[in-house]
Specification:
It is built from 15 helices and 12 strands. The protein is of the alpha+beta class. It has one domain: Orthogonal Bundle (Cytochrome p450), CATH 1.10.630. The strands form 4 sheets. Strands 1-2-8-5-3 form a 5-stranded mixed beta sheet. The radius of gyration is 21 Å and the shape is globular. About 40% of the residues are buried. It binds protoporphyrin IX containing FE. The site of protoporphyrin IX containing FE has 24 residues, from helix 11 and helix 15.
Length: about 400
Amino acid sequence: MLSLANEEPFQAYDELRKRGPLVWDPGMNCWLAVSYDACKIIETDEDTFHILYADIDEKVREINGGSTGITVLTGEKHAAMRRVFLKMLSPHSIEKYRTAHVLPVINDAIDRFQKRGSAELVEEYAQAIPERVMASLFGLPWRDDALVKQIALWHKDIVAWVGMAHGPGELMIKAQLASDRLNELFLPLVIERKENRGDDFISSLWTQGEKDYPGFGVTEVLHNTREAAVGAGETTANAIANAVYLYLTNSEVHQAITADQEGPLNSFVEETLRLLGSLQWRFRVAGRDATVLGVDVKKGDLICNLHAAANRDPSHYGCPHAIDLARKAPTDHLALNVGPRLCVGMHLARMLIREGMKTLIERLPELRLDPSKEKPRFRNFSHRSYGPLNVLF
Ligand code: HEM
């Protein structure tokens, strides 16, 4: 699988799936779960298939954001923290963010390049939106490009270490430094909002956490602000880039969502997530011997749940490689996970992708790829999107 970096992986995933729902990959030294049902069984059963953070070093938890952060919690504490997030990020709760935080950022991004008649939309649009929206939600100066870029770079340093081997060395020093800087940035905001609540994300976290999470205090708010900041960035940026790519390269879709931006646009957001994802996979480790769809997995085995393959499994989706804006159950894909770790930022993610597309279509109706520039490719490996997206309008 390692050889698929920067390549379109979907044909290879189809070949792998012919060998069974789980296939052993000696290069990655883990099982690849390539069928929809296998991924769903594994991710729904956290008692058997543990998150990697369950038994991990304290240093990794600290650098990841802190030991009370939602992604490293398990059991009752995890369930309680999920209640906090799901309430404060419900469709109803985030509605107030649309006009106060989301649309100003999106329109500002277009204002910056509209007069030029050309742009590179991965960097100037897809990446700009979630980073600036989250800064705005935290009450940081979101027009401060240097600060917003710096936050993204700190997150990259952390993911580069936590997401990989996380041993000692230069990467760990960079990740520790990044984590310290992020704590220095967020801690004063967390302390200030304890007394002065507003409409922002950190204030909502305080208010909801105090209701639903026993012993909720500065530590919990800090760690979970860090979780939201890192969870929202690259994932949503990739999804926006993928949506723009599919819009620019599929004339039928282009027509359908230009003509009617209500139902078809919502379906398009789901089909973008299903077809291209943005996080291609998530790891789990078997906490005991288990059998998944006839395949024996031993205690301690690592499993890579390949959502990008599961989301094109022909036994679950008819015409799995095609965009179908009339699919039954359009939201049952695994791009945002399933079960006890279903993404708690999913409604905000959908709002950003949807509003990002809607505004682009309305404000730049002549948008098209620039044929004189490099063609977009499906770049990177685990966090992927099409790019570059050089456009004219
Ligand atoms: C298209 C954009 C997004 C994608 C594809 C995505 C994907 C995912 C996935 C696959 C997981 C499960 C991780 C695992 O258990 O291994 C997850 C969890 C999570 N996501 Fe997202 N996410 C997106 C946007 C967001 C946003 C906007 C936020 C924050 C506001 C966010 C915050 C989180 C958090 C805090 C978790 C941990 C949930 C838990 O452990 O219970 N995500 N996301």
